[in-house]
Structure formats: structure tokens, C-alpha cells
Amino acid sequence: MWSRLPLPSACWRPAWPMRWGGSVYFDVAKYNKEHHYGKLSGRNIEELIANTRELEGQEEKRNAADFALWKKAQPEHLMRWPSPWGPGFPGWHLECTVMSTKYLGEQFDIHGGGMDLKFPHHECEIAQSVGDCGKEPAKYWLHTNMVTLNGQKMSKSLGNSILPSEFISGSHPLLDQAYSPMVLRFFMLQSHYASTLDISIEALQAAKRGYLKLMNGLRVLRNLDYQPQEGVSVNEKGAQQVAGLCDNCYRSMNDDFNTAQTIGHLFNLVKKINALQTGQLSTAELGEQTFTRMKETVLLFTEEVLGLREEAHLKPENLLDALLDLYRQAKEAKDYERVDQIRAHLRKSGVVVKDMKQGIDWAYEE
RNA sequence: GGUCUCGUGGCCGAGUGGCUAGGCAGAGCUCUGCAAAAGCUCGUACAGCGGUUCGAAUCCGCUCGAGACCUCCA
Questions:
Q1: Distance separating alpha carbons of residues A243 and A251, to the nearest angstrom
Q2: What is the ipTM of this complex?
Q3: Domain spanning A2-144 has what CATH number?
Q4: Residue A33, Cα to own-chain centre: how many angstroms?
Q5: Is strand B less than 7 A from the beta carbon of A216?
Q6: What's the pLDDT band for A50 if we cut at 50, 70, 90?
């Protein structure tokens, strides 16, 4: 991969790197004379150096805050590429900088990552980019907080770490069932990205039901259309309330991606949608403009902005079994009109019913 | 030890000085052949102590508790 990327020689100006043996380090102290190393995580270099302990393998650095740009490959090292300093491999921070520069340019809009990467990794990325081209790599940094499990940090040593794939399959002793990707997404969006999120069975179950409630609302909404009614005028207060909820969706997302609050507003709108379905509220009371706006807003925020979509939960086999059961009953009752009806319905899905001596089965229509 | 974050009702989780967050669970009501769904109503929460203020979950201080980073590897 590295052979296809612009290699460091083009990337580094001689201002801050310093060479040592076959490795190259970034001189943080020197950089800090002109720029603030630590601006992202609110640190200053004096404290960093004062608080650092002596560790092995750091003899090559001028001081502990320096970081490797290019590391000399030891003979047994598998990763190795040629460079002006001999065979080696890029430092961790440089990998990211070179890749993002190649694919996103010298400066891009948003750089995400867990808050554990804020220091030192992202500070180093900033220093490298500024050192190289004078620009900070990202306009905005978006740091997500950590996830805990039953109030404890997930870690391998505690034996409480669960892989994403294990959530989805449900194959983990700490899980009571499988949780689909959309349920997990909903679960995470219910908290702010910068807050810690605690995973527990109770919380996951609650999220699953909440997600299904939202999806049911969406399904109802898709089938709703504006119906004018004679003698029914727009309820201004109610319409304003709905319009306000639509505004709030935008407002909360614009407020540092407050997805939790946005979901809250969406649920308030789902209440209105359900009331419309059961006739406790009419679209005429809402007014065409407000109704249309509500429909567009809810679909936009749920599906496009939050990325929450309906997952197919229905098992076609079960539905087919149910229909064949009705078919069998109709046949026994000699209700041939109904029998033909069921056959016609199934044929629409490419399924033909097979009446055999041994019983009833089905096949794909050929 | 240093720097920083957090502690909200049974559970999860928004909210940063006065205005209903929301979801799940629970109770009651309406609707209903039964059941479900849905709607309405309810619990009056902000770790503890003290302070600032007309007023604090929200600001300040202290205490207790939880967590992150401060070093390597990625």
C-alpha cells in the first residue's frame, strides 16, 4: 500500500523532523516554539515533559514528547519499505496523515475518532500537517466517548468485551438475544456522541422496543395522505405545535449533533402520526402544508439524517405457512372461491400451490 | 501523583440559571366481540454538604463515587 502513496520525503519539510540512525522523529519542542502542541487536548508541552516517565526504547528521541515519523525496520520486521533513510515503515501518526492527505486533501472538514485518540495521536497529526503544508488537517474534530458495559469499561482482561458481530449474532454469554445493527444504531443515537454510553441488557431491550415503535410510526406515516374534510378547519395551535417539532429536529441536530434530542422530537411527532392513523386527529386539522412538512421532516430525519431504516423482521416462510393453512381450510370447506383467491395472491409472489395426495406444498413458479 | 470528564426518577438518557425532553418498565382511563395497537393521565428525578442568586439539576467550593488521558503498540 505504501508504495502507492506519496512517501514522506515529499511530505516533510526540514523544519521539524530530525533524523537519528535509520529513524526520523518529529521534534515537538522545536515545533512548539511556533505553534501550540497540545491545543486540541488542552495540554502544554512543559507539563508533558515533566510528567513523563523514563521508558525503554526511547533513547533515540531528544525528549519524550517526540514521536516517530519513520521507523527503521529491524531485520525481523515484516513491514518494510525503501526510503531515503533505509528500509523502514511509517510511524502510526504518519499513516493517517498520508492517507488522509492522499484521499481527502491537505485539509478536510471533519476528522472523527474516539476521545482516547485525542492525545497524542491527533495532536501529532496536527503537528505533522502544519509542519508539512502549514495547514491543520481538519476543520472540526469530532471525538466520541467510550462505551461501558454494565458500568464497567470493556476490556479483554475483564472478559466483558463484546464484538459488534457478537451483538448482531447474539452469541455472547452476556447477551440475552441478538441485537440487529439498526437497534444498535438507535441505541447509540439515543445518547450524545461525546457522552459515555453504558450497555446493559435492560438498556438494549428498551432500545429495541423504542426502535420498533419508531419504525411502526414510519410505516404508518408512509401510508398517510392529506385528506381535506368539509367543515373542518385548521387547528392553529395544533399545527403550530407540529411545525415547532419539525423546527426542533433541525435545531437539535445543528446543536453539535444532538441526536438524542432529535429522537425525542421524532417520538413526539410519532404520537401525532399514530393519532392521525386512529382518527384521533385528522390531517385536515393539521392543514395540508403542516402535514406535508411533517411527513417530509420525519422521513428525512429518521432515514437520511439518523440512518434508521426498517429492517425486515418478517419471516416469509411463516407467512407462507399461514396462507397455506388457510388454503387447506378453504379446500376442506369446499370454499373454492377463497381457494382461487389465495392461489392468485401467492402467484403474485411467484409461488404456486401444489395439491398432492400427500398434502399441500408449494413451489416457485417456473 | 498531574490534567480532564462525568454522577439526572425503577432502567437508559437529553437538558447548563426560571419554560413538558424522549424511550423502556409500572399504574389508571378511552377505544374494543376477544386480544393487540393507539391516544390521554400519573410518578413530581437531578450524588452529598455548603455558598452565590429573587430563583440552580444548570454557576462556585468542598466531600464521596465512576471513568479517560498522562508510556509502548496500533
A1: 12
A2: 0.91
A3: 3.40.50.620
A4: 39
A5: yes
A6: low
